Amino acid sequence: MEKTLLDLEPGTQGTIARFIGNPGFVRKLRTIGIREGKTLTVVTRHPLGGPMVIEVDGREVTLGRGMAGRVVVDVAA
Amino acid sequence: MKTVVLMGNPNVGKSGIFSRLTGTRVITSNYAGTTVDVSRGKMHLPDGPAAVIDAPGTYSLTPTNPAEEVAAEILGEADVVVNVVDSTNLERNLYLTLETLERGVPAAVALNLWDEAGHQGIAIDVAGLERLLGVPVVPTVGLSGQGIRELVGRLGGARPSATIRPMSEEERWATVGRITGEVQTIAHRHHTLADRLSEASIRPISGLFIALAVIAAAFLAVRWIGEGLIAYVFEPLFDLYTPIAMRASDLLGPGILHEILIGHLIDGEIDYVQSMGLLTTGLFVPFAMILPYIVAFYLVLSILEDTGYLPRLATLADTFFHRLGMHGYGIIPVFLGFGCNVPGALATRVLETKKQRFIAATLMSLAIPCMAQIAMIFGVLGPFGLHYVVMVFATLAVVYVAAGLILNRVVPGECPEIFLEIPPYRAPDLRATVMKTWMRVRGFIGEAIPYLFLGILLVNLLYSVGFLDLLAAVFAPVMEAWLGLPAGAAVALLVGFLRKDLAVGMLVPLGMSPEQLVIAVTMLTIYFPCVATFVVLLRELGARGMLAAAGVMVTAALLVGGALRMVLIGF
Fold it and tell me: Are residues B169 and B220 in the same domain?
């Protein structure tokens, strides 16, 4: 089932399916290691509109909620 | 002479490699800001001496922020590139490697953090990677110096890659995947204590407690280091200098030159805090009162950076700073600003857009008192009771938040969200940390000290010609009617532009009530930065930006001053 990263609870795992945004946005994600086909784990989601932290390939990345809403993840239903 | 450029992603230990290559022969640093640090040094290649430039960390050559723009530009100066790669994260690092090799510049790859990769069960076929990339590949450990000699040796014969040709972005991603698959094997790894600590420091609640503890420890360390430097280094130096200054005082004799250079003697002696001469207080304040704390602040910041804690702190702080139009890294100018607003203003460069930098700089100038001011606030208000001091700081905190919320709405421009990698915790490389601190301190000396010096000179001159009294007479009605302060406070506020700490001291003899002092001291912090900060801000924000910031500051000062007057004194 496809969901945006923003909708995932901490602890959830999924496979990165695609990104919604311009090529610059996509490149920014890919070069930091967030790429299509990679497995992602949600480490935490800060309350009060704060950022999310995810883990990909054993590396943690912090990203704002606006960006998280444009990352589409395939999760087991 | 050849130019060697170090290119690499952020957090790959590039500055450690740089300090290994160059030793202590580092000649200049372009920026004293926090991320756009460009270090230049010299090294010996097999075929002679070469210049080395440490480019800012970047993920690609298509820049997405000012630091990456600088990196892409510096690549153009390279005769030879050393691409520093994080062995624990080969796949992500290879994108920049390919982009760099596609430029056809002679290059070598340093597989850094090689020991860490081993601990994590990651094995890389070095010979295979060398064959696929078509340039020398050398495993290195910046911290211990392992592999550096071999790297330097192979730089002599570095050539452009024989195998990598320019390709499209999609092809590049495919090539990254193919190469990684061929040369890297990963053994399964269990979660370690460090992993658990890492997660605890980025989760909301546990992270907040850790952050508070780290910040408290950071300020204690700053105080301890700063006081230590003053007591054991700078004051003894001035004790040696005193006989020379006294001798100069005797030679000059009384007169205007003595007044400007030495100032007035107190009980026949030079008092470095109160004499106000260019060669007495003018040297003492910047070098013995401010510089030691700047050294301490920069050292602590470098340690926080090099251990990998800073990105975690930025993650936690983001929830707050994001609402004020910045993102988590907005905490750095605040932290440094408490030492001195000049490094704080320089540190606004960690933010990406003009809007974010404007907000960060304006808020810091408004509401973050520097070390000198904090000392004076305690000195002036402390005797009346700590609650008056708390009043000042509480007001400043409210001003920071309120002005941030408003500026975020009214300032045009973009506020990109936080987006950063959290590196694993690492023991800081002492050499690199010390070198970074030293370069930042040197930047500060060049950027701020001349203006602190100039400030004292101007105060002395304006005083002796009576100009300040004239201005004070003009502003006196505003002082009395709007702020409920005596006319004399106007002089202090004007002097405050040149010397904040001095200005607070000038409030004491006016015999004001503690409530009036709270108003005056708060106004003094808000209404304008000191002349050194002003000059840096002018350069960072441009004339229009500075004018807008100054408008915000004066407006805020008058509004807050008026409001405090109504609350504390009534009409």
Answer: no
Instruction: Quote the CA–CA distance of B130 and B460 in Å, as a whole number.
Output: 66
- Determine which of B322, B324, B326, B414 to mutate to test the interface with A (most A C-beta atoms within 10 Å): B322
Is residue B177 located within the same domain as residue B230? no
Q: Tell me: the pLDDT tens digits for B100-149?
A: 999 989 999 999 999 988 888 889 999 999 999 999 999 999 888 899 99
Beta-strand relationship, B26-29 and B39-45: antiparallel
In-domain check, residue B374 = yes
Q: Which of B135, B156, B186 is the last residue of a domain?
A: B186
Domain-located, residue B194: no
Q: Is B477 exposed, middle or buried (0-12, 13-18, 19+ CB in 10 A)?
A: exposed
Q: Is position B333 within any domain? A: yes
Which domain range does residue B146 map to?
2-186
Contacts of A30 in chain B (CB under 8 A): 95, 173
Are B260 and B290 members of one domain? yes
**Testing the interface with A: which of B11, B310, B319 to mutate, by most A Cβ within 10 A?**
B319
CB B222 within 8 A of CB B296: yes
Of B62, B95, B421, nearest to A59 by CB-CB distance is: B421
> What interface predicted TM-score (ipTM) does this complex get?
0.93
How many domains, chain B? 2
CA gap B546, A53 in Å, rounded: 36
- Say which CATH number the domain at A17 has: 2.30.30.90
Tokens linked to B253? 């004799």
Closest CA to B110 of B184, B21, B182, B171: B21
Which of B158, B186, B214 lies at the terminal end of a domain, its last residue?
A: B186
Whether residues B153 and B283 fall in one domain: no
Same domain, B176 and B213: no
- Same domain for B122 and B263, yes or no, is no
Contact A64 B318 (CB under 8 A): yes
List chain B pLDDT tens, one digit each, 571 residues.
889 999 999 888 888 888 888 876 555 454 434 346 678 888 888 888 888 988 888 888 887 777 777 888 888 888 999 999 999 889 889 999 999 999 989 999 999 999 988 888 889 999 999 999 999 999 999 888 899 999 998 888 788 988 888 888 888 988 998 999 888 888 766 667 777 888 889 999 999 999 999 999 998 998 899 999 999 999 899 889 888 888 888 888 887 788 778 877 878 888 887 777 778 877 887 788 788 888 998 899 889 888 889 999 999 999 999 999 898 899 999 988 888 888 888 888 888 888 999 999 999 999 999 887 888 888 888 888 899 999 999 999 999 999 999 999 998 888 888 998 888 888 887 877 888 888 888 878 877 778 777 777 777 777 777 777 787 788 888 777 787 888 778 777 777 776 666 676 777 777 788 888 888 888 888 887 777 788 788 888 888 888 999 889 988 988 998 888 888 877 6
Token reading at B239: 């004790």
Among B108, B107, B140, B142, smallest CA distance to B13 is for B142
Residue at B201 is within a domain: no
Interface of B with A (CB under 8 A): 59-60, 62, 64, 88-89, 91-92, 95-96, 120, 169, 173, 189, 198-199, 202-204, 311, 314-316, 318-319, 322-323, 327-328, 417-422
Interface residues from chain A to B (CB-CB < 8 Å): 23-24, 27-28, 30-33, 35, 43-44, 46-51, 53, 57-67
In chain A, the number of structural domains is: 1
The CA distance from B138 to B142, in Å, is 12
CA B60 to CA B96: how far, in whole Å?
5
Instruction: Tokens for B126, please give them.
Output: 């070095």
The CATH number covering residue B157 comes to 3.40.50.300
Domain that holds residue A18: 2-74
pTM: 0.83
Test A64 with B202 for CB contact under 8 angstroms.
no
Please indicate, yes or no, whether residues B239 and B169 belong to a single structural domain of this protein: no
B368 & B399 share domain = yes
